């Protein structure tokens, strides 16, 4: 029987307190020698002469979870990981706040780093998660991932 993935989504920004607690939970896992983290922070880019003040994230959640399962499995097959955690914001995240937290753990640094980088790319390009940039004056436009 296949284990169901827990949702990766959190409402609003991912807090630094939550990130610290998640890292701290791994102190009991003595076989781990490396953690690689990615923190995606909302930038205050300038678009059409206005600053981005926030991004409003939305997703087709059932499809994200359906697609994420095989992606995650492929990462575990490719890299000797102990853990792989993903947390992505939904809703409004202001400039300067964290919207994506990826945390890969392994015995050695290279697989943790490479797996973390690969899963971030897969999240950005393979999953139906969208960001609407909120500009000064509350105008908005859809974000395009490059």
Describe the overall structure.
The structure is a single chain. With 146 residues, this protein is an alpha+beta fold. It has a single domain (12-142), classed as Molybdopterin biosynthesis MoaE subunit (Aldehyde Oxidoreductase, domain 3, Alpha-Beta Complex). 31% of the residues lie in helices and 38% in strands. The chain has 3 helices and 8 strands. It has helices at residues 16-24, 61-78, 109-126; strands spanning 9-11, 34-41, 46-47, 50-59, 81-94, 98-106, 129-135, 140-142. Strands 1, 2, 3, 4, 5, 6, 7 and 8 form an 8-stranded mixed β-sheet that branches. Helix 2 runs antiparallel to helix 3. The longest helix is centred in the middle third of the chain and has 18 residues, at 61-78. It is globular and about 50 Å long. The chain starts with 8 loop residues before the first strand and ends with a strand. The mean pLDDT is 92.
């Amino acid at each position: 029987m296949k284990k169901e993935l827990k949702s990766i989504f959190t409402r609003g920004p991912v807090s630094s307190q939550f990130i610290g607690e998640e890292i701290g939970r791994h102190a009991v896992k003595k076989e781990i020698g490396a953690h690689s983290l990615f923190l995606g922070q909302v930038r205050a880019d300038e678009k059409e002469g206005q600053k981005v003040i926030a991004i409003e994230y939305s997703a087709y959640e059932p499809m994200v979870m359906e697609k994420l399962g095989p992606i995650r499995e492929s990462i575990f097959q490719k890299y000797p990981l102990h853990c792989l955690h993903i947390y992505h914001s939904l809703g409004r995240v202001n400039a300067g706040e964290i919207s994506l937290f990826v945390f890969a753990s392994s015995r050695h640094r290279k697989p943790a780093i490479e797996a973390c980088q690969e899963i971030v790319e897969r999240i950005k390009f393979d999953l139906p998660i969208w960001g609407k940039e909120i500009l000064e004056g509350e105008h908005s436009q859809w974000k395009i991932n490059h």
